[in-house]
Structure prediction request, 207 residues.
Amino acid sequence: MGFLDNLKWRFATKEFDVDRPVSKEGLDKILTAIRMAPTSYGLQSFHVYVVENLDLKKKIKTRSFLQKQIDTCSHLLIFCARTDKKNISQRIDDYIDLATGGDKVKKLKMQPAKLMMKGSIKMKSDEDVACWSSKQCYIALGFGLAAAAELNIDSCPMEGFDKKAVDKILQLPANLNSTVFLAVGNRKEDPSRAKIRFSNEDMFTHN
Prediction:
């Protein structure tokens, strides 16, 4: 199947086959797609926890409305937004180091870009930074979903969980907030109904 056919094949899997875990190769490809996703300024202002441990997944399930995806999926990817302005500012410095290889001349040329990025972050409120970072999580989530479909690996994006409780379970540092889940695995059953989408006319306006 081609990419668009694979998107038609995928569905929000409600229960996974625990006896058919995702291969390391498949997981690595999904993680690569997430890593390669575009983000604002290229800063990738999020971190992803890849949860495979069943006991940990069961703890998270208790704070996720007991949804079956949590403890039947092969891997639970938890996208966490970076919310601390100082952390983001340091990340800008790290980004410049990566982009220049530490070369002083190249760093000098990138100084305007560095100052622009730092100025943009400084102007944001703490709430704005959290919102901005959470949006980057969702961009990366979309790439993870698309990669899984291309690999014929089932998946389900999930927001239904107690974020503060999950933060405690994962013992997240203060600068990270859990934002959205991506459960991946292999479906236990095929979908019970055809995929439903609104028409092109409803979705798109061409000017």
Notes: The longest helix spans residues 126-150. Residues 3-187 form a domain with the NADH Oxidase fold (CATH 3.40.109.10).
